[in-house]
Protein backbone atom coordinates (compact mmCIF):
# COMPACT_ATOMS: atom_id res chain seq x y z
CA UNK A 1 0.00 0.00 0.00
CA UNK A 2 1.57 3.32 -1.04
CA UNK A 3 2.25 5.84 1.69
CA UNK A 4 0.09 8.96 1.28
CA UNK A 5 2.06 12.09 0.53
CA UNK A 6 1.64 14.36 3.58
CA UNK A 7 1.77 17.37 1.25
CA UNK A 8 -0.96 16.01 -1.03
CA UNK A 9 -3.49 18.68 -1.98
CA UNK A 10 -6.98 17.54 -2.96
CA UNK A 11 -9.61 19.97 -4.25
CA UNK A 12 -13.18 18.78 -4.87
CA UNK A 13 -15.92 21.03 -6.22
CA UNK A 14 -19.56 20.26 -6.99
CA UNK A 15 -20.97 22.98 -9.21
CA UNK A 16 -24.66 23.78 -9.74
CA UNK A 17 -24.03 26.40 -12.43
CA UNK A 18 -22.09 26.22 -15.72
CA UNK A 19 -18.33 26.59 -15.31
CA UNK A 20 -15.46 27.44 -17.62
CA UNK A 21 -12.88 24.65 -17.16
CA UNK A 22 -9.86 26.72 -18.18
CA UNK A 23 -10.75 29.46 -15.71
CA UNK A 24 -11.21 26.93 -12.92
CA UNK A 25 -7.92 25.33 -13.86
CA UNK A 26 -6.11 28.68 -13.79
CA UNK A 27 -7.55 29.48 -10.35
CA UNK A 28 -6.46 26.04 -9.07
CA UNK A 29 -2.94 26.52 -10.45
CA UNK A 30 -2.71 29.94 -8.79
CA UNK A 31 -3.85 28.50 -5.45
CA UNK A 32 -1.23 25.75 -5.67
CA UNK A 33 1.60 27.98 -6.81
CA UNK A 34 0.99 30.26 -3.85
CA UNK A 35 2.04 27.55 -1.43
CA UNK A 36 3.94 24.96 -3.45
CA UNK A 37 6.91 26.85 -4.85
CA UNK A 38 10.38 26.45 -3.46
CA UNK A 39 12.59 29.31 -2.38
CA UNK A 40 13.58 29.99 -5.99
CA UNK A 41 9.95 30.40 -7.00
CA UNK A 42 9.88 27.34 -9.25
CA UNK A 43 6.90 25.00 -9.27
CA UNK A 44 7.88 21.76 -7.53
CA UNK A 45 5.82 19.44 -9.71
CA UNK A 46 6.97 19.27 -13.31
CA UNK A 47 4.04 17.42 -14.86
CA UNK A 48 0.36 18.27 -15.05
CA UNK A 49 -2.40 16.39 -16.85
CA UNK A 50 -6.05 17.39 -17.46
CA UNK A 51 -9.31 15.94 -18.63
CA UNK A 52 -12.41 17.95 -19.55
CA UNK A 53 -15.66 16.09 -20.20
CA UNK A 54 -18.59 17.76 -21.96
CA UNK A 55 -22.21 16.77 -22.47
CA UNK A 56 -22.66 15.22 -25.92
CA UNK A 57 -25.54 16.52 -28.05
CA UNK A 58 -27.29 13.16 -28.50
CA UNK A 59 -28.83 10.60 -26.16
CA UNK A 60 -27.67 6.98 -25.82
CA UNK A 61 -30.23 6.07 -28.49
CA UNK A 62 -29.07 8.79 -30.87
CA UNK A 63 -31.90 11.30 -30.40
CA UNK A 64 -31.15 15.02 -29.97
CA UNK A 65 -30.49 15.78 -26.29
CA UNK A 66 -32.32 18.74 -24.79
CA UNK A 67 -30.65 18.68 -21.40
CA UNK A 68 -28.78 16.26 -19.16
CA UNK A 69 -29.98 16.08 -15.56
CA UNK A 70 -27.44 14.98 -12.99
CA UNK A 71 -28.68 13.73 -9.63
CA UNK A 72 -26.27 13.02 -6.78
CA UNK A 73 -26.19 11.98 -3.12
CA UNK A 74 -25.27 15.21 -1.31
CA UNK A 75 -22.57 14.58 1.28
CA UNK A 76 -21.60 11.15 0.01
CA UNK A 77 -20.74 12.41 -3.48
CA UNK A 78 -18.25 14.97 -2.17
CA UNK A 79 -16.77 12.52 0.36
CA UNK A 80 -16.49 9.78 -2.22
CA UNK A 81 -14.83 12.04 -4.82
CA UNK A 82 -12.30 13.08 -2.19
CA UNK A 83 -11.63 9.49 -1.08
CA UNK A 84 -11.19 8.32 -4.69
CA UNK A 85 -8.85 11.24 -5.45
CA UNK A 86 -6.76 10.58 -2.33
CA UNK A 87 -6.46 6.87 -3.08
CA UNK A 88 -5.56 7.46 -6.73
CA UNK A 89 -3.00 10.13 -5.88
CA UNK A 90 -1.43 7.82 -3.28
CA UNK A 91 -1.20 4.94 -5.79
CA UNK A 92 0.59 7.13 -8.33
CA UNK A 93 2.52 9.42 -6.01
CA UNK A 94 0.73 12.51 -7.35
CA UNK A 95 1.06 15.76 -5.43
CA UNK A 96 -2.15 17.62 -6.24
CA UNK A 97 -5.57 16.69 -7.61
CA UNK A 98 -8.54 18.78 -8.68
CA UNK A 99 -11.96 17.25 -9.37
CA UNK A 100 -14.82 19.52 -10.44
CA UNK A 101 -18.20 17.97 -11.25
CA UNK A 102 -21.47 19.57 -12.36
CA UNK A 103 -24.81 18.62 -10.84
CA UNK A 104 -28.33 19.66 -11.83
CA UNK A 105 -29.40 20.45 -15.39
CA UNK A 106 -26.57 20.64 -17.92
CA UNK A 107 -26.90 21.76 -21.54
CA UNK A 108 -25.26 19.92 -24.47
CA UNK A 109 -21.70 21.15 -24.93
CA UNK A 110 -21.34 22.36 -21.35
CA UNK A 111 -18.51 20.97 -19.25
CA UNK A 112 -19.66 18.27 -16.83
CA UNK A 113 -16.35 17.13 -15.32
CA UNK A 114 -12.80 18.40 -14.96
CA UNK A 115 -9.96 16.29 -13.53
CA UNK A 116 -6.44 17.69 -13.13
CA UNK A 117 -3.38 16.06 -11.57
CA UNK A 118 0.07 17.40 -10.78
CA UNK A 119 2.92 14.95 -10.32
CA UNK A 120 6.67 14.85 -10.68
CA UNK A 121 6.56 13.02 -14.01
CA UNK A 122 4.22 12.66 -17.00
CA UNK A 123 3.48 8.96 -16.38
CA UNK A 124 1.90 9.33 -12.93
CA UNK A 125 0.10 12.54 -13.96
CA UNK A 126 -1.47 10.97 -17.06
CA UNK A 127 -2.26 7.63 -15.43
CA UNK A 128 -3.81 9.21 -12.35
CA UNK A 129 -6.13 11.40 -14.45
CA UNK A 130 -7.37 8.43 -16.47
CA UNK A 131 -7.77 6.14 -13.47
CA UNK A 132 -9.52 8.75 -11.34
CA UNK A 133 -11.93 9.54 -14.14
CA UNK A 134 -12.89 5.87 -14.45
CA UNK A 135 -13.14 5.55 -10.66
CA UNK A 136 -15.52 8.48 -10.34
CA UNK A 137 -17.68 7.35 -13.26
CA UNK A 138 -18.31 4.04 -11.50
CA UNK A 139 -17.93 4.70 -7.76
CA UNK A 140 -19.17 8.21 -6.97
CA UNK A 141 -22.96 8.46 -6.46
CA UNK A 142 -24.07 10.37 -9.56
CA UNK A 143 -26.95 9.48 -11.89
CA UNK A 144 -27.61 10.88 -15.36
CA UNK A 145 -31.04 11.37 -16.89
CA UNK A 146 -31.28 12.34 -20.54
CA UNK A 147 -34.15 14.63 -21.56
CA UNK A 148 -35.29 14.39 -25.17
CA UNK A 149 -38.65 15.09 -26.76
CA UNK A 150 -39.98 16.18 -23.37
CA UNK A 151 -39.35 12.88 -21.61
CA UNK A 152 -36.51 11.79 -19.34
CA UNK A 153 -34.65 8.47 -19.39
CA UNK A 154 -32.23 7.35 -16.68
CA UNK A 155 -28.95 6.31 -18.26
CA UNK A 156 -28.35 2.59 -17.66
CA UNK A 157 -24.56 2.59 -17.69
CA UNK A 158 -21.38 4.37 -18.68
CA UNK A 159 -20.20 4.72 -22.27
CA UNK A 160 -17.23 2.50 -23.23
CA UNK A 161 -13.74 3.80 -22.57
CA UNK B 1 -56.24 19.11 40.07
CA UNK B 2 -53.04 18.04 38.45
CA UNK B 3 -53.34 16.61 34.96
CA UNK B 4 -50.52 14.44 33.70
CA UNK B 5 -49.04 15.65 30.42
CA UNK B 6 -50.59 14.02 27.41
CA UNK B 7 -48.03 12.04 25.48
CA UNK B 8 -49.08 11.25 21.95
CA UNK B 9 -48.24 7.75 20.88
CA UNK B 10 -45.39 8.00 18.44
CA UNK B 11 -42.91 5.55 16.98
CA UNK B 12 -39.64 5.32 18.81
CA UNK B 13 -37.45 7.14 16.31
CA UNK B 14 -34.31 6.11 18.13
CA UNK B 15 -35.02 2.54 17.00
CA UNK B 16 -35.49 3.53 13.37
CA UNK B 17 -33.26 3.95 10.33
CA UNK B 18 -33.54 6.54 7.59
CA UNK B 19 -33.93 4.88 4.17
CA UNK B 20 -33.02 6.82 1.03
CA UNK B 21 -33.62 5.98 -2.62
CA UNK B 22 -32.12 7.71 -5.66
CA UNK B 23 -32.78 8.24 -9.36
CA UNK B 24 -34.73 5.44 -11.11
CA UNK B 25 -35.18 3.54 -7.85
CA UNK B 26 -36.75 6.57 -6.18
CA UNK B 27 -39.16 7.13 -9.06
CA UNK B 28 -40.15 3.47 -9.22
CA UNK B 29 -40.91 3.38 -5.48
CA UNK B 30 -42.62 6.77 -5.47
CA UNK B 31 -40.67 8.03 -2.44
CA UNK B 32 -37.12 9.19 -1.75
CA UNK B 33 -36.73 9.13 2.00
CA UNK B 34 -38.52 7.65 5.00
CA UNK B 35 -37.96 6.56 8.56
CA UNK B 36 -38.38 2.84 9.02
CA UNK B 37 -38.59 1.19 12.46
CA UNK B 38 -36.14 -1.61 13.11
CA UNK B 39 -38.60 -4.39 13.81
CA UNK B 40 -36.21 -7.29 14.21
CA UNK B 41 -32.67 -7.54 15.41
CA UNK B 42 -30.46 -7.71 13.54
CA UNK B 43 -31.95 -5.99 10.48
CA UNK B 44 -29.90 -5.51 7.31
CA UNK B 45 -30.35 -3.54 4.08
CA UNK B 46 -31.28 -6.85 2.44
CA UNK B 47 -34.08 -7.28 5.00
CA UNK B 48 -35.36 -3.75 4.35
CA UNK B 49 -35.31 -4.35 0.58
CA UNK B 50 -37.76 -7.23 1.11
CA UNK B 51 -39.85 -5.53 3.76
CA UNK B 52 -40.26 -2.33 1.71
CA UNK B 53 -41.01 -4.34 -1.47
CA UNK B 54 -38.40 -2.44 -3.47
CA UNK B 55 -38.23 -5.12 -6.16
CA UNK B 56 -39.08 -4.28 -9.74
CA UNK B 57 -40.96 -7.57 -10.10
CA UNK B 58 -40.98 -11.13 -8.77
CA UNK B 59 -37.93 -12.14 -10.87
CA UNK B 60 -35.34 -11.48 -8.16
CA UNK B 61 -37.33 -13.21 -5.41
CA UNK B 62 -36.93 -10.34 -2.97
CA UNK B 63 -33.14 -10.29 -3.21
CA UNK B 64 -31.26 -7.08 -3.95
CA UNK B 65 -30.14 -7.24 -7.62
CA UNK B 66 -26.34 -7.15 -8.06
CA UNK B 67 -26.65 -3.81 -9.89
CA UNK B 68 -27.95 -2.08 -6.74
CA UNK B 69 -25.32 -0.90 -4.26
CA UNK B 70 -25.84 -0.13 -0.58
CA UNK B 71 -24.49 2.80 1.40
CA UNK B 72 -24.73 2.97 5.19
CA UNK B 73 -24.10 6.41 6.65
CA UNK B 74 -22.88 7.53 3.22
CA UNK B 75 -20.22 4.81 2.82
CA UNK B 76 -20.54 1.70 0.63
CA UNK B 77 -21.48 -1.40 2.64
CA UNK B 78 -22.40 -5.04 2.13
CA UNK B 79 -26.15 -5.79 1.92
CA UNK B 80 -26.00 -8.06 4.98
CA UNK B 81 -24.39 -5.50 7.30
CA UNK B 82 -26.48 -5.22 10.52
CA UNK B 83 -28.09 -1.79 10.85
CA UNK B 84 -27.99 0.24 14.04
CA UNK B 85 -30.66 2.68 15.22
CA UNK B 86 -30.15 6.06 13.60
CA UNK B 87 -28.29 4.71 10.57
CA UNK B 88 -28.93 6.18 7.14
CA UNK B 89 -29.18 3.39 4.57
CA UNK B 90 -29.31 4.21 0.86
CA UNK B 91 -30.08 2.00 -2.13
CA UNK B 92 -28.07 3.19 -5.12
CA UNK B 93 -28.98 2.24 -8.71
CA UNK B 94 -26.15 1.83 -11.26
CA UNK B 95 -23.86 4.84 -11.06
CA UNK B 96 -23.40 6.99 -14.17
CA UNK B 97 -21.11 9.85 -13.21
CA UNK B 98 -18.52 11.83 -15.13
How many strands in all of chain A?
A: 8
The best one-word shape of chain A is: elongated
User: What number of structural domains do the residues of chain A give?
Assistant: 1
Q: Percent range for helical residues of chain A?
A: 25-40%
How much beta of chain B, percentage-wise? 15-25%
Number of helices of chain A: 3
State the CATH superfamily name of chain A. Answer: Molybdopterin biosynthesis MoaE subunit
How do the strands line up in the largest sheet of chain A? 1-4-6-2
Biggest sheet record of chain A = 4 strands, mixed
Amount of beta strand of chain A: 25-35%
Q: CATH top level of chain A?
A: Alpha Beta
State the end-to-end distance of chain B. Answer: 67 Å
Would you give the CATH topology of chain A?
Aldehyde Oxidoreductase, domain 3
Q: What's the SSE pattern of chain A?
A: EHEEHEEEHEE
General shape of chain B: globular
Number of DSSP E strands of chain B: 5
Helices and strands of chain B, in order, run as EHEHEEE
Mean pLDDT reading of chain B: 87
The chain-level mean pLDDT of chain A equals: 92
How is the quaternary structure best described? Answer: heterodimer
Protein name (chain A): Molybdenum cofactor biosynthesis protein MoaE
Organism (chain A): Cyanobium gracile UHCC 0281
Characteristic terms for this protein:
heterodimer, A: 161 residues, alpha+beta, Aldehyde Oxidoreductase, domain 3, four-stranded mixed beta sheet, 8 strands, 31% helix, 32% strand, elongated, B: 98 residues, five-stranded mixed beta sheet, 5 strands
Textual characterization of the structure:
The complex is a heterodimer of chains A (161) and B (98). Chain A has 161 residues and is of the alpha+beta class. Chain A has one domain (9-35, 43-150): Molybdopterin biosynthesis MoaE subunit (Aldehyde Oxidoreductase, domain 3, Alpha-Beta Complex), CATH 3.90.1170.40. Chain A contains 3 helices and 8 strands; from the N terminus they run E-H-E-E-H-E-E-E-H-E-E. Chain A has helices at residues 21-35, 76-92, 122-139, and strands at 9-15, 47-54, 67-72, 96-102, 104-106, 111-119, 142-148, 151-154. In chain A, the strands form 2 sheets. In chain A, strands 1-4-6-2 form a 4-stranded mixed sheet, sandwiched between helices. In chain A, helix 2 runs antiparallel to helix 3 (122-139). The longest helix of chain A is centred in the C-terminal third of the chain and has 18 residues, at 122-139. Chain A is elongated. The model of chain A has no long low-confidence stretch (mean pLDDT 92). By secondary structure, chain B is an alpha+beta fold. Chain B has a 5-stranded mixed sheet. In chain B, strand 3 (69-72) and strand 4 form a beta hairpin. Chain B starts with 15 loop residues before the first strand and ends in a 6-residue tail after the last strand. The model of chain B has no long low-confidence stretch (mean pLDDT 87). The chains are: A alpha+beta (161), B alpha+beta (98). The interface between A and B is medium-sized, with 25 and 17 residues. Chain A: Pfam families: MoaE. Chain A: This is Molybdenum cofactor biosynthesis protein MoaE. Chain A: It comes from Cyanobium gracile UHCC 0281.
